[in-house]
Amino acid sequence: MTCTISWFGDTQRIMLMEMRENWTWQEFYPVFTQQREMIAKVSHPHPVHTIIDMRDAHLHIPTNTIANMRNMAGNQVENSGVKVIVTSSRLVHVMFETIRRILPHKRKAMFEKYYTIVHTWDEAIEFIDAMIAKEDQQTED
User: Fold this and answer.
1) Helix or strand or coil: residue 128?
2) What CA–CA distance (Å, rounded) separates 69 from 117?
3) Torsion of CA 35, 37, 42, 46, to 10 degrees
4) What sign results for the dihedral spanned by CA atoms 39, 106, 57, 3?
């Protein structure tokens, strides 16, 4: 399978979506639906963050990416947290920035709230850990 989703760790606060070489939107959407269903079943009040690991798909961007990302920017399930895309691909980083720039104001705000992109796995873990620490601090206050 070129797209998979699973829990990362045992707290149900982080999911791992893996995108492998030559993935397609037709393969992605069932995994996206599965992710939404898994998040909906979580009983804790914390957001569920997702690491989207594209390190193995670094040279691949399927057709209609801009249209699909525009649709996803405003299509978040309740309790959905940040999606951190991990890739060293300059092409993917440029595409991400292009999408962010062309979105209409309302969708752009949603996109910026829910999506970020980093170059390395360590950056993704650091970003998510900081988000969780902030959420935990807010819960304690």
Assistant:
1) helix
2) 13
3) 50
4) positive
Q: What is the pTM of this model?
A: 0.86
Neighbours of 48 (CB within 10 A): 21
More confident residue, 77 or 68: 77
Residue with tokens 């990362």: 8
Q: Is the model's pLDDT at 59 over the cut of 70? A: no
What is the torsion angle, in degrees rounded to the nearest 10, for the CA atoms of residue 59, residue 123, residue 45 and residue 105? -60
Name the CA dihedral angle for 102, 114, 42, 7, rounded to a multiple of 10 degrees: 90
Are the beta carbons of 47 and 80 closer than 8 angstroms? yes
The domains of the chain, with CATH numbers, are 3-34+46-140 (3.30.750)
- Rounded to whole angstroms, how far apart are CA atoms 116 and 102? 16
